[in-house]
Each structure stands twice: as C-alpha cells, then as structure tokens.
Specification:
The chain is of the alpha/beta class and about 525 residues long. Among the domains are: about 110 residues, Luciferase, domain 3 (Roll), CATH 2.30.38; about 100 residues, 2-Layer Sandwich (GMP Synthetase, Chain A, domain 3). It contains 16 helices and 28 strands. The strands form seven sheets. The chain has a six-stranded antiparallel β-sheet. A five-stranded parallel β-sheet has the order 6-5-7-8-9, with helices on both faces. A hairpin with a 2-residue loop joins strand 24 and strand 25. The longest helix has 17 residues. The two termini are about 45 Å apart.
Amino acid sequence: MHQRANRDILQSSASQEKIFQSPRPSVELPVISLSDYMFSRFRRFENRKALVDDATGTIYTYWQLEDLSRKVGSFLYRKGLRKNDVICYCGTNNPEFCFLLLGCASVGIVLTTANPAITSGELEKHVKHSGTRMLVTIPPLVIKAREADISDIIVIGKADGCRPFSDMLADDGKCFPTDISINPQEDVVIMPYSSGTTGLPKGVMLSHYNVVSNLIQHQNAFSTTTDDTYLAVLPFYHIYGMVMSLCGTLQDGGLVVIPTGFDPEGYLKAIVKHKVTQITLTPPLLLFLTRHPAVDRIDLSCLRKIICGAAPLAEAVSQEFMGKKNKIIRQSYGMTETSPVVTLDYETITAGSVGPLLANTEAKFIDPATGKSLGRNETGELCVRGPQIMKGYLNNEKATKTTIDEDGWLHTGDIGRMGDNDCIVITDRLKELIKYKDLQVAPAELEDLLHKHPAIEDVAVIGMPDERAGELPMAYVVLKPDMSLSEHDIIKYVEQNVADFKNLRGGVKFVKEIKKSPSGKILRRLLKDQLSGSQH
C-alpha cells in the first residue's frame, strides 16, 4: 500500500489533476542523435550478424551496418541534400531501408515513409506535402512513382532511367560531413504519416530525442539479447516496424531476419529456418497463428518473446492462442505520435490490459465532456505525457494544438481506465480512425472522395467490426434527389481512387439523412450503435 502511495496519483494543488506515473523506475535518457546512439551500440557487436535478407541469404554484420549507413549519408551529401531536407521511402522491407534510415539520420536528413499500397495520386500528395526531394523505392513501384510526378528516383534493384541504390553503397564516404550540428530535441529525424485522432493524413514530426528516448524506454521493459533472432514482418514504413522492430532489436545486438513480405507458408518456414526467438504481431497475424491449420504442423518452440500491438486485440483471441501454444503474449499500446510506444505489459501479463506505462511516462484520464481528470478505475479519454511525444504535425498548427495541449498532454482519442494493478485498459475510442488490419483509414478522406461523386448528397464513413480485420470501412450514403446509384457503383468508384486497404469492404447503406450535431459533426457513435443493433 505504501509503494502505491508513492507512485499513485499525483495531485497538483492548483488544478487537482489526477496524474498517474509509471510504476517502472525512471531511466536516464541521453540527448543524442539517433545515428550516434545506434552506432555507439553497434560498436559493441562489430562482427556479429545484424541483418539477414531472407530471400537472398545476404548477411550484414554490425560493422557493415554502420559503414554502409555512413556511405549513404556521404552519397546524399555529395548529391546536394542538406540538413532538414526530406527523402521519402515507399517500398517493402529490405536491408537497404536500414542503411537509408541511419544514413539520413547521420547527416540530419528527414526520412518520411509511404505505404507502398497507396495510389500514385496519394503518393503525389504525400511527397508534395512533406517537401520530398528524393524518392527511394523498389522496381515494381517505379511506374507509380513516375505517375506521382517525382523526378529524382532511386531504386533498390534495377529500373530503366533510375539510379540504383547500389550507387549509394559504393560511395567512397569522403563526402560524409564532419561539421553537422544536430539538436536532438529540436531536429526531426523521421516523419511517418498518421491520421492522428481524426482527419486527413498528417506528417508526424519525431525528433532524434523522441525516438532514442522511446528505444531506451522500450529496452527497459523488453530487452533483446545477442541470442535473439527477430523476424521483421511488420512493415518498415510503419512506425512500429521502423523503430521498435528494426532499431529496437539492433540496439541490443540481436539478429533481424528480413522477409520481403508476408505469405503464410514463407512466414512459418522462416520461423523454423532461422530459429526465430522474438516476433511482434498485429491482431490479424495473431489470429492466423491461432487458427490456421498449417500452424499446427510447425514447431514454434523456439519462440520466446511475443508482443502484440498496432491495433486493439480481442481478449478472447489472445487467451485462445496462449491456451493452444502455451506461450505468453505481451500487449503494448502506442501511436505514431508517441514514437510509438506508451505501455507494455510485464512478463506476467494482465488479461484484457495493454500493460503499465513505460518509464518516464505519465498518464491521466479525462471526462470527454468536462475535461475533468478522473481517478483509478474511472473511464475517460487517455492523455499521455513523456519524452516520446512528437514535436507536432508538419505545417498544421491547428491539429497540433488540438492533439497536444499547453501542458504537454497528448490527447489520444482512446477511452480507457487505470486498473488496480497499474495496467491500462483500453475500452473504446473517441477518434474516428478506422483500423483495417492495423492500417489506418481516415473516414474524412473517403468522405471527401465520395462527396465528389455527382450523385451523392451526403455521406458518413465508419468502421464495421470484423473479427479478422479489426474493422471494415463502411459508408452511409444519401443520394441526391432523382439520382440513382447502386452499392456496387459506389464500391467500384472508391476502388478506382484509393489504395486497396481503404476499400469499402463493409459495404454501403443508403439512408435519407446523416445525423449530425449542432456544430455539424457527424454522429458516428449513433451510426455505430445502429449498426450494432442491426447485427443482433
């Protein structure tokens, strides 16, 4: 009881705010660039294997990892790119991504990432908004890149009219600058795109300090060792795959096995072939490992460490997996805006929770209506504060101020509570974001597209619950008077204009009106309640 009193709710005499601190002891967080931090770690493991390309069998040691990353930095500097310039990566997982990430970081260049499934129009918006000067991609996506009106394209492999990435790795390193001055707490190192709590995709500005801090916070709760082998199936363009899967394993000398993509048979074979000890899952992947018949024929005894994150996980699925496989799943919670991890379960898990706060992280739960902070076991919107909180959204001060308040609290848009055991339970979410197979679908983006259709008067898009995918985008549509349009017509229209994962897999429902609040906001909760009622 005394321990809880020391770490429980801190109350400010001025505001009487109820603030929860992490039960984990605070850790020292160095003010250092991402590349300096990672390279200093690599030197402990110089001749150990760092990366292996599952498709080709190519192996890179930690010494090569630093050397090739510096050559990339030298090449970029030689080509005229300078601190705060932006490079975009749009492609699948490969070792070259790691060289690019650390090469950019070493010379102060910002790396932004794009989902390879987006359309050329979406990619064009991304590169223009981010101010991208150069795009790095893979051969199958070169046509898409050209359609997106990008002139400076570097390809991992070979493609006509494109400079090969191998030119970067062949650089003599002589142009690597020695006078780069990086301010870790101010300078941006990566800029993934997220829809945040609502709205259209936004550039999330993460500083060197944000990312390094979160790596150390995560390390404090989940330490990889030189005996660990990690299978990097989560995409590197995604914040979790980029920071936690890749850098999180490499900071401790583990081996990262990189497949080019996911296919069930190849995934299972890779676990056995490389004696994988550590994996990070999303709920759809966990469902596959729980229920796919092929899994029963595979020996998973090598797996020792399993984390599930990126989207809400049904407690029933996690319990089913742990019962069948006799393995522990540790859940985590975070956002792109938090670099990305906020919580991670202990080795002794708490069913239904996402675990306790990471070290150096605070949380509070507020009443969405009044903003009043709430006590233990009281349900409200989760707000978090810590060194991993983003600088803000690129060129979007309004969205930044809406998300991060004057006291540095990031309002997550998720509803939950602090349990008796210091573990957070997420029960719902305020934000409108749809999570389809851990990919973000912004209702506002689809609504904007559908509003452009000449036959549509009004529209609202919500997520339909789905056991396998998490949520399926679904549209409520009001047609203009005397206009005719079928469900198939609308679904096809969306398919022709957005990436596959944003398609209206939940279908279309025609209604007479879209219910809205007095301020004009769509009452999505009402629509979801109607949907839930119709399904029962």
